[in-house]
Predict the structure.
Amino acid sequence: MNCSSAPFVALMEWARRRSGVKWDSPPLWPVAAPSLLGFIAACLPYLSDIPNFSEGSLLAPFGVVALASLALLLAPDEIGSKPELIAGTWVAMPVAFLPQLVFYVWFIPVILLWLAQSIYLWKGDYPAFRIGIWIGFGAVSGLYLGGFFAHYFL
């Protein structure tokens, strides 16, 4: 082994030793809590007169959901590294949200991907970062669905 491959080998060893999470039954909180939080945050501009919250914009509700993701520090210990869980959430949220500014229909693949993850992710053995991605996509899916609901029904 030469010196240039040593960091790669060390990274692979670290990844192999990491333990993931595998649930016996589908968990409710990683599916329901983030999407419900996103839904409620998207409805806030229509329900109150909070400064910087304008109807039709999801930017301020996105900030609320991003800050609220710090509550993942209270996640069960079985998840693993909580900073890694939050990092996964913070990586997924902009990936799920920012393309919507350019591609109007971006919310459709985001919601479909989140639904697919919600059906199958709990069966696998995934690290905290990957579960954070699932949670982040769920929160942004809730934002999209809540924005649609608030615009047409509130």
Observations:
- DSSP finds six helices and no strands in the chain.
- The chain has one domain: 28-153.
- The CA atoms of residues 21 and 78 lie 7 Å apart.
